[in-house]
Each structure stands twice: as structure tokens, then as C-alpha cells.
Amino acid sequence: MNAPKGKVRMNSNRLRRIREAALFAALLAIIVVPFLVFEETMLSWVAALRDGGYAAAAVALAFVGLLVADILAPVPSSLVGVALGATFGSVGGTLLVWLGLTGGTLIGYAAGRRLGRPLVRASVGGRDLAGLDRLVARHGLWALAFLRAVPVMAEASVILAGAGAMRFGAFLAVMALSNLGVALVYAQIGAFGVEAGSMGLAMAGAMALPALAWLIQKAAGHARGAAGGPAGGAG
């Protein structure tokens, strides 16, 4: 006797969630373990950069550039943000992370205006684009603010705002404030890691915010699906 379609779908969704969790755990280990193994070396690099004058300025410029590029390229923005906090402290790191994130949102908005929805679809796929459409249509700028810390969806939502010609002034105000909150968290984590003498702790903290936001977004999508509507995901 064939299994009911609902049960097959439920088992498929459960297996997909298990694969996603396993992939995330593996990525977390790949990122954090090297920082634990080479912790002393990395702490000495941070100390050298803090006193390095032009070298520190070059690192700041390069890392801000990476955050800007994250809108269209697979850059681990949380790790870059924490590294900036570790190197330049909570205040300097917050400012640099905010500049990078805000620069990226401006580029993403402009790219969305010029290239439209095909660029969003290329970023997240058709299924997740449908979920993102519903989320933004229902909650507008609040959705963009929440998704600031969700991997992939953060960038896709910004591009979608541009593709939908969202009012630029309101978009910029919300993004500036949201980016400031994210920047403050990442910079504080990095600065705390250096003060505690643990880069592994800092890198684990760097993964915590996007992981939590991703899990909340996935849970909200599954809840909507269970209530009768299709669920969107972070991909």
C-alpha cells in the first residue's frame, strides 16, 4: 500500500530540514575549528593590525569592500563584521561594518531597479522568491529590517525592493537603522572575543546571529505552510 501523499511530503520536509541542519553544523565546524587551532596566531595578527597604521587602514578598506560586495557575491559578512570589531574595537568596528552593509544595500537597490526580478530569482530560486514576495507584500519595510541578518534573503530582499521600486527615502532610512543594529552586534562580538582572548568564541558568536535569524525565518515559513499556505525559505 502506498503511503499517503501528506505523510510522504512530511517525511520529505523532515529529511530536508535534517540535511540543512547537518550542512549548517558542518559549515560551523569548518569555520570555528581553525580559529580554535590557530587562536594565538590570529590574536597576535589582530594586535599587530591595531598598531599597524597604514596596514590597518588597508585592512579596513578591504573588509568594507567585502561587505559592499556581499550584496552580489558569496561573502561571509558575519565573519567579516566580527573581524572588523576585533581589529578596530566596538566603536570603530561598528562604523566600518555599517558603512560596508549600507554601501551594499545601495548597490543592491540600484541593481534591482536596473535588472529587476530575474536577479532576485537567480539569488534565491523561484520557490523562495514566492515566499519572499509574500513576506514583503505583507510586511513591507518591516520584512526588510527583519531579513537583514538572514543569509541570502538579506541580499535578495534588498534587490527585490529595488525591483519593486520601493520608495527610496523610506528604504534608505530603514536599511540604515537595521544595518546599524547588525553592525553593532557583530562589532561587539569581535571586540569581546579579543578582550576574552578567544577568537573561536568570537567566530562562534559571528555565526549565532545569522543562524538564529535563519531558523526563525524557516520556522515562520513552516508555520505558514502548516496553516495552509506554502512556506518560503532561506535557501
Quick synopsis:
The protein has helices at 5-37, 39-50, 54-69, 77-115, 117-124, 126-139, 141-146, 153-163, 168-196, 199-226. The chain is an all-alpha fold.
Explained architecture:
The chain starts with a helix and ends in a 9-residue tail after the last helix. The longest helix is centred in the middle third of the chain and has 39 residues, at 77-115. Helix content is 83%, strand content 0%. The protein is mainly α and 235 residues long. The protein has one domain (16-226). The protein is globular, with a radius of gyration of 19 Å. Residues 75-191 form the VTT domain.
Task: Write down the overall mean pLDDT.
Answer: 76
Class of secondary structure makeup = mainly alpha
The largest β sheet comes out as: none
Low-confidence runs? 226-235
Total number of beta strands? 0
Quote the distance from N terminus to C terminus: 34 Å
Organism: Ferruginivarius sediminum
Pfam families: VTT_dom
Membrane topology: Multi-pass membrane protein
Protein name: TVP38/TMEM64 family membrane protein
Tags for this entry?
mainly alpha, single chain
